[in-house]
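Posting this for the archive.
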Amino acid sequence: MTERRRYTFKIYATPAQDMAMRDIKGACQRLYNAMLEQRRFAYKHRGVSVSRWDQERALKRLRAELPEYKAVHSHVLQGVAKRLDLAFGSFFRRVKAGETPGYPRFKSFH
């Protein structure tokens, strides 16, 4: 039997690193809100659903056009699309189960 250990390390970021992490967090928040708005608009005006895969395919073009996303690693941006897709999955699961559904909300920057 193997033993597992968990280590916790505190991060002491320099001011430059702190600013870089804030920039990445802001870019992810704006991307999440843009993806949520894209899904809402597509369903409301065209009656179609936008999938996670559609949004992930658009990330390559987005990174080429907007320099703020070029600095963020692609896996981080794909994680944003995944979290939004999980939020919608939970929403539709609650609708199907007859529970009180909570539609995915826009994220604010703290």
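The first helix runs from residue 15 to 46. The two ends are 43 Å apart (CA to CA).
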